[in-house]
Each structure stands twice: as C-alpha cells, then as structure tokens.
Design a protein that fits this description.
Layout: E1 2-5, E2 12-18, E3 27-35, E4 39-42, H1 49-52, E5 59-66, H2 86-102, E6 104-111, E7 117-118, E8 123-124, H3 126-132, E9 138-139, H4 147-150, E10 153-160, E11 164-169, H5 186-214, H6 225-236, H7 248-276, H8 285-290, E12 294-298, H9 301-308, H10 313-323, E13 328-329, H11 331-340, E14 343-348, H12 349-359, H13 362-366, E15 368-372, E16 380-385, H14 391-404, H15 406-414, H16 436-465, H17 474-488
Length: 489
C-alpha cells in the first residue's frame, strides 16, 4: 500500500501496486482515501480482487490444449468433424471467452498426451507436465480429476462431464434368459408339474383297469409306465394319440386332460411369440458380464489406461473376459459393430452421437441404450499450476461464462443425442439363438435315442451269441446207435 497526500485537502490517497507478470510494468490501483475525521474510505470495498483485476491488458499467455489430430487446428470453433478431439473442441469456446473476458492474447501450446505419472522416472508427461512445470498458465483441455494429479496441479472448475459410456443395442431376452422358462412363473411350473403327475397316475390306473377287467385297448394286455409317459407327452404338446378309452370314466378323463393342456399350450405359445420380439435393458456390469454380448473400447490412449487399470473387481472381470488388450476399435468400426450385432462399445458419447445420427436408421436409434462406463464418476477439470496467482481470477471468470450458458451451448452442439421418432416399427426374424434351447433339447433327445439304439443292438447281439442250444436226452442217442448197427449187420 502506498500513501499519497492530496494537494488541496487533508485527505491522503491510498494506492495498491501490482503486476500482471514478471515482465509487465507496475499497475497502480486507487484503493481509496484516508483522513483524521472519517478514517479510511475505500473505493473498492464492494468488489473482489478477482473482478477488479481481470483485465490483463492483452498480455500474451500460453494455454495448453490436448490436440491429437492435426486437422483439429482447422475446426476448433466451426463445430465440424466433432468425432476427433471432441473434448478439446467442447472446451475451446469457453476458454476463448475466458481470454476475451480477461483481455489475454491466447498462445496455444498443443500436446498429444493427457498426462500420466511414470513411477520409474517419477515424472509426469503431456498436459499435466506442461502445467506442473509452469510452462503454461492454464490447461485449455480438461483431463480427469485424480488424486495423483491433484498433488501437482490445482483443479479450478469442472468444464466437461467427459461422458464415456457403454453404447449398445438393447439385446433380445434370449441373450439374457432362457425364453422357454419365462412364460410361467416358478409357482405355475410347480403347479403344472403336479397336474401332470396327477393325470399320469389317473391314466395309468384307469387304462390298466380297463384292459384287464373290461376290454383291451388297442389289443394291449397292459400299459407300462413308458406307454403312459408317451401319452402324457402327446397331450402336453397337443399332438393327440390313437388310443381311445372304452369307458365313460376314461373318456371324461381324456377330455379334461386335453382341455386343460389346450389352454396351457395356447397361453404358453402366445407368450413365447411376444417375448421373441421383446428386448432387455442391460442395467449394470453384472448383466453385461452374464450376457452373450461382446464388448470393446474406443481406441484412445486414455481409454486403454482407465479400462485396464480399473480397481473395481467386476469391471476387471468384464475387461478380462470381453475386452482385453485387443478389444479396442476406431470409433466408426465400434459404432458399426453396435449396429450390426449385439455389441457394447465403451466410447465418448458426444463423438458417438454424431456418427450415430448420420449412419443409423430411426429404428436403430430407438433400440439403443446407454449404460454408465468405467469412468462415469470422473469429470474433466480445467487446472492451473499450484498456487498460481491467476487461479481465482480464472475460476470466477469461468463460473460467469458457465452462468451465461456459453459452456453448455458448446457442449450441446457436440453432444446432441439423436432422437427416436417412432419405435416399434421394426420386426426381427427369429434366429438360431432364440431357438437354441429348443434345438438343444432336440439334439439331446436324438443323442439319447441313438445311444439307447446302440445299447439295444449290443444287448441282443450278445444274447444271441451266448444262447445255449437244448441237448437231447442220452437214451435217444443210444437207440439211434443200435438201429445203425442193426442196419449195417
């Protein structure tokens, strides 16, 4: 504080000197006056230093930006090619507004790495290194807030949500469950089993009673459990049979049995048709891990780091089972895999939306779903060097820019989610996966039948070879020998 006596009265003027940087001339700020009667009268007691000294007088300052592709230089502000360096482009408009608000001449310093710590050399690289070594005054791109980075730089404001999520088509229920057990609840299946057993016992008793006491059915002397089991299968599957009961009791039983299974069969078949066209919303990592869907990640440096280095046990299992080191694809390739099949792609949401809007049909868009990714809890923060004198000025200015809606406008221009205008207009054919369990039962039945046929052939072959021919009594052989001797004599 510098005190200067006023020439015309007894007041003393109070001035505060400050410098924008080490090479800049001293700037004098009129703080107020002082006199013996009223003491200190401040001109600036109602304004903070962050708002008073935001004019940097066109001072050139370096700001680091993550720029991986050279083409980005030509499209930082025209909203074109949003699929490359998306996060940098989302943030550039707000940083440009910050430079204009603070009257700073912007000097862009490009880097190709976000910034990671090397335990062997105990150094940082990329964007974090530039800020940590004070080679720049601000990071124009917003990397993730991590504990390691917080120790070397000061994060001042969340600039971008950096939404990285799983993008996928809603899979059919056949990818998640056995379709043929879904139509009925577990209690219904239990009740159905009891009904089948009751009908089985009643049919076995009545048919054998009719055969033995009244009149044989289909020239049968008796009905074995396997015969009745086959009749029950025919009734459950609504295939009918050629055996007719000769008594009123038996015919009433058959009528009730076929009628009951008719309603059950109709309900079951109708529900199967419905769920064949139904989809399932994958809720969490466990659902994705248990499903038959494939998974992959977007081919970027940070994506490999965060997917492979996750500390979450379930995320590690998902990465090891479905992604792995070779499960990373370019954005176009990954989104195309999502469109062609049931594939979960871990990618930047903003860049993916732009490509989806240009290549997907409306029915494809309506069938999409988004699930939280590995880094959904992490946000992108703009940061300055530790204890930077510009930290509070930049922070207040960025908050004002956010309040004015500039940051949100830029974000929405890149992260505009495609709209679904008419779901339910598509029809998917039934595939092998939908019929997998039915085909599995068919294959198992054929296998069991072939095995039983082989065993029966072996059994009868062995029995035929080991069958003992009956021997004639000895006295017959003696009589024949006597007759032969008499004839010869």
């Amino acid at each position: 504080m510098v005190v200067k006596e006023a020439p015309e009265d007894d007041d003393f003027e109070l001035w505060q000197p400050y410098k924008i940087d080490m090479e800049h001339a001293i700037i004098w700020e009129n703080y107020g006056t002082w006199n013996e009667t009223f003491g200190v009268y401040s001109y600036i007691n109602k304004s903070e230093i962050q708002t008073r000294r935001h004019d940097f007088q066109a001072t050139p300052m370096k700001v680091a930006f993550y720029i991986e592709f050279e083409e980005t230089w030509n499209h930082l502000e025209d909203f074109r090619r949003p699929r490359i360096d998306t996060f940098t482009k989302q943030n550039f408009g707000a940083i440009r507004a910050l430079m204009e608000y603070c009257n700073i001449t912007l000097i862009i310093v490009p880097v190709k790495i976000w910034g990671y710590y090397n335990p062997e050399t105990q150094t940082w690289n990329g964007l974090i290194e530039k800020v940590h070594k004070r080679e720049v005054v601000l990071a124009g791109s917003s990397p993730y807030f991590t504990a390691e980075r917080f120790q070397v730089v000061d994060f001042i404001k969340m600039q971008n949500p950096l939404e990285i999520k799983f993008i996928m088509k809603k899979p059919p229920l056949s990818y998640m469950y056995n379709l043929y057990t879904l139509p009925f609840q577990s209690n219904v299946w239990k009740a159905l089993l009891i009904v089948v057993l009751l009908f089985y016992a009643a049919m076995y008793v009545i048919m054998n009673w009719e055969t033995r006491k009244i009149q044989p059915i289909a020239c049968r002397a008796t009905f074995t459990p396997s015969d009745v089991s086959l009749i029950m299968c025919e009734a459950v599957c609504q295939q009918g049979n050629t055996l007719e009961s000769n008594t009123v009791t038996g015919r009433i039983l058959e009528f009730i049995m076929y009628l009951a299974f008719f309603f059950l069969y109709s309900s079951y078949s109708a529900y199967i048709v419905v769920i064949l066209q139904s989809t399932y919303t994958v809720a969490d990592y466990q659902d994705l891990y248990d499903s038959s869907m494939g998974a992959g990640g977007m081919e970027t440096t940070y994506m490999r780091v965060y997917l492979a280095g996750s500390k979450n046990l379930l995320q590690q299992k998902l990465y090891n089972k479905k992604i792995g080191p070779n499960g990373f694809y370019a954005l176009e390739d990954g989104i195309q895999r999502v469109k062609n099949g049931f594939f979960a792609f871990h990618a930047e949401v903003a860049a993916s939306y732009n490509y989806i809007a240009k290549t997907y049909t409306d029915s494809d868009i309506c069938n999409l779903q988004i699930m939280d990714g590995y880094s959904s809890y992490m946000k992108g923060y703009t940061h300055t060097p530790k204890n930077s004198p510009y930290k509070e000025i930049f922070k207040v200015a960025l908050l004002k820019i956010d309040e004015y809606g500039i940051q949100k406008r830029n974000y929405l221009r890149y992260a505009d989610q495609p709209k679904c205008h008419g779901g339910g207009g598509s029809f998917d054919s039934v595939g092998i996966r939908d019929m997998y369990n039915a085909l599995l039962i068919l294959a198992a039945g054929i296998g069991v039948a072939v095995c039983l046929l082989i065993l029966e052939c072996i059994y009868f072959h062995v029995r035929k070879r080991t069958k003992v021919q009956p021997r004639r009594p000895v006295h017959h052989n003696q009589e024949r020998e006597k007759r032969e001797k008499l004839r010869n004599w």
